[in-house]
Write a structure and sequence with these properties.
alpha/beta
Length: 638
């Protein structure tokens, strides 16, 4: 590829970033020989620093296997606004001069970047490039709220200064970023344009943060190298020879968790007590996405949106029909829910539009979500079964016991089935039966004990499969009073059946089937009758008291009990957790979304790479949140 540093024209923003930010961080030389490399960029600007890093990665035969690049964008940026920045800084013209295979790969990545750019809504988004080996994490929103918890460990820190976007380069923000910089790594500071001097306010912020920029020669341009003056790296990645993990369960949660780790280069052993994949609730004929839309963009809306974005990325390997979702509701509710939301994400539609989107006559309009869809779970998990994952069935784990730094999965006879330093428990409704011992002298406890305050509830239920003439089949998922999910060209899955429906004699079952069908039939303009109806087994679902999943590290209930008085006095302290033990459970009826989000959240923590969620949302899924609420309640009662 043609290099564009010292010989570049004055408007080559990519070459400017390479000659300043990358040069001050000793890139690409610093990353050679490393398995992964993580960059944090405190200002997206025109994206030149990312493209310069991506160009250097493509051009280097000794590049790391995986590149993680996290960047603060400030306010959410639309695709059109990004294109305007590219045009203003002549980004595409600069890349047009790149030659060779790596140049063509870079131009392909740029096209994919523009095509996959997320809808302009706050939150964390991912774009996977170069076949998943490069992961761009976009933190869209106020930097002070997006930076905490975003990146656990940084190998290179870019601090680009721009006149129009630098309010967040304050001492606390700089301290927070520098504290994550790994030992013997570098940060770089420079202006994004060709100014010769940086404002005195930036140097003052550096001094207040305990840092002093060391001027470096960057092809005749001004750049500063910032040393690591304080803090520590809060996590260390696993050694290349110790990247082995164990996943318990082969439902959606287990399959997604194994896939997330395997994509990061881990070898994964998956154990399940059943005879095959997708036991229980994961095994129904078709599954739907259930994104939430609220006028205030509540946490549930943000969480389901992030999950759906992730589902359309690396996890989109077949089995999903992206035909959209129509949520039937009154017009005023639809208008209120969609107010201020880009129509690409959610659109209030009238009756005529609803009929057009669904392909059938409906009595009302509602909310149209074009990015949602439904999935054949068997085909979906088949796509997730990639190299590096080994599954063993008829392997029931009764107890997890840690010996040294390894977790041993034991059967009911005490025989070791497998061992690993990292274990993800994704056993679905059977999760409460598993017992844990952190060492030979510690008491044994069950997961039911650990999550007693979460009020975990096992809920059974079945969906009704109806056969309809093709002309009566909706072309998308229809929600509202229950759900209607297409299975194929003539079969529709309806539900949920109310508790007790379809569980008795034949007459009661027929009556229950008629009641489920009638709920959907009432939404049709011209009611019809199916040619056949039968209940599908739906297994057991596990749900929590707040209807959000458990996704994160296992709380250490023994350690929490020992520190209870201290935690009551200072309830902002972190709860003790068990090293190497993670939970993905409590998905309720949103398994298709929560499985992907939980898998990415846990895998990022295990692999010490950028998180898929801002910290406030990750905390909403933390498995210890219910214990925290009990502690706060006890504090208030003192």
């Amino acid at each position: 590829m043609t290099r564009h540093d010292s010989t570049a024209g004055p408007n080559d923003a990519i070459a400017h970033a390479a000659a300043t930010l990358l040069a001050a961080c000793d890139l690409p030389a610093a990353w050679r020989g490393e398995q992964t490399w993580t960059v944090l960029d405190l200002n997206l600007c025109a994206g030149a620093a990312f493209l310069a890093t991506l160009r250097a990665w493509h051009d280097d035969p000794q590049r790391p296997l995986r590149l993680h690049y996290a960047v603060l964008t400030g306010p959410a940026l639309s695709r059109q606004a990004l294109r305007e920045r590219f045009d203003r800084h002549r980004i595409e013209q600069a890349l047009a001069g790149c030659a060779g295979d790596s140049g063509r790969a870079l131009i392909g990545d740029l096209q994919q970047l523009l095509g996959d750019w997320p809808i302009a809504l706050k939150g964390v988004s991912r774009i996977d490039l170069a076949g998943g080996r490069v992961q761009l994490t976009l933190a869209e929103g106020p930097p002070t709220g997006m930076l905490p918890g975003l990146v656990p460990r940084i190998d290179s820190l870019f601090v680009p200064y721009a006149v129009e976007a630098h309010d967040h380069l304050t001492p606390p923000m700089l301290r927070a970023a520098l504290s994550r910089l790994a030992p013997h790594r570098h940060a770089a500071l420079t202006a994004v344009d060709h100014r010769t001097e940086l404002p005195a306010s930036i140097h003052t912020s550096l001094a207040d943060a305990g840092m002093q920029g060391e001027s470096v020669d960057a092809a005749g341009r001004q750049a500063f190298r910032l040393g690591r003056r304080h803090g520590r790296s809060f996590a260390l990645p696993a050694r290349p020879d110790d990247r082995h993990a164990l996943v318990i369960g082969s439902g959606l949660a287990g399959c997604a968790s194994a896939f997330a780790l395997a994509c990061r280069g881990w070898t994964v052993e998956r154990l399940d007590q059943g005879d095959g994949p997708l036991p229980g609730a994961s095994g129904q004929a078709s599954l739907a996405h259930y994104p939430s839309i609220t006028p205030d963009d509540a946490p549930l809306s943000q969480l389901t949106r992030t999950a759906l974005r992730l589902s359309r990325g690396l996890y989109n390997l077949g089995g999903v029909s992206w035909s959209g979702r129509l949520q039937l509701c009154p017009a005023d509710e639809a208008q209120a829910a969609c107010a201020g939301i880009p129509t690409e994400w959610a659109e209030a539609v009238g009756v005529a539009q609803a009929r057009e989107r669904a392909g059938v006559g409906l009595r009302s309009g509602g909310i149209w979500m074009a990015d949602a869809g439904h999935a054949d779970p068997v085909a979906l998990v088949a796509g997730w079964s990639i190299s590096g994952i080994h599954t063993r069935y008829r392997a029931r784990v009764s107890r997890l016991e840690r010996i040294g730094d390894q977790w041993h999965a034991l059967d009911r006879n005490g025989r070791c089935l497998a061992q690993a330093a990292q274990v993800v428990i994704a056993a679905g409704a059977q999760i409460g039966d598993l017992s844990i011992r952190t060492d030979h002298s510690a008491p044994v406890f069950t997961l039911a004990d650990a999550f007693d305050s979460a009020c975990l509830e096992r809920r059974g239920g079945r969906s009704l499969c109806v056969t309809l003439p093709p002309a009566a089949m909706p072309s998308c998922v229809v929600g509202g009073n229950g759900h209607a999910i297409p299975i194929d060209a003539c079969r529709l899955l309806l539900g949920p059946a109310a508790p007790g429906e379809g569980r008795s004699d034949m007459a009661s079952e027929a009556s229950a089937a008629a009641a489920v069908w009638q709920r959907f039939n009432e939404s049709l303009e011209n009611p019809t009758m199916p040619t056949s109806m039968c209940f599908h087994p739906n297994g057991m679902r596990l749900s929590t008291r707040d209807h959000l999943p458990l996704a994160g590290p296992m709380p250490d209930i023994t350690g929490i009990a020992q520190q209870r008085d201290r935690l009551i006095q200072r309830d902002r302290l972190s709860l003790p957790t068990i090293d190497g033990l993670w939970v993905a459970a409590g998905f309720g009826g949103r398994g298709l979304l929560w499985s992907v989000l939980s898998a990415e959240l846990i895998a990022a923590r295990i692999d010490v790479t950028p998180a898929p969620l801002q910290r406030s949302l990750a905390q909403a899924l933390d498995p210890g949140r219910f214990i925290r609420r009990v502690i706060r309640r006890d504090r208030n009662s003192v």
